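Deliverable D4.2, example record:
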Amino acid sequence: IILVGKTGVGKSTAGNVILGKEVFKREVSPKSVTSECKKAVGVVESREITVVDTPGKDIEECIVVQSVPGPHAILLVLNVNARFTEEEKAAVKWIEDNFGPDSSLYTILLFTHTNQLEGKSLDQYISESKDLQRLKQQCGGRYHGFNNQLKDRSQVSELLQKIEKMVQENGGQHYTNEMYEEAQRRLEEERKRVEEEPLTGNYELLDTQKYEQLLILFRLKQLKNRLNVFY
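Output generated by the structure prediction step:
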């Protein structure tokens, strides 16, 4: 299980809830306590579960290296108390762009701090936001809520059931390095196409955000290749 999401949404706490013990460091801070991938293994309901807690950014290594041979579930963590940002609205697309179109088949929305919804159900909370409804649809309608209480094991049982159902729908397969490599190949092709496109009047119509993302990805690749670090 891979936990992804922006800094401060409760990824580390969610990992602790899943494993039923404090294994990931957490504290109240505007900065990310998790600065690199952290992996922990535990036995939950008689099965061995591996959970990978990711930093807010640079999660590629976490998914490709730390979760070999590949994750069965990518949990996109959202805090019901936090403002839903533009970054989060595009989160599923970002996952698909970087890890391939099939990656959304392995993704579940995980809402934290649902005990603070003030009498409102999670369904009601999602129904009040078109952006959340769209995000839910992009994940095949899969979502779950955590109240962030370690002692409440029923919420973990329900999550594992949803993951098991998703795995069965994916033919029992996990996300593979081959899927990642194919996604990276497509990104590289898109980067080349963008850089080679002449500076014509149509150039300004390109998606600036995507162009910048591709350039950043390419520069990171160049740097990591120089350092002989697997990417």
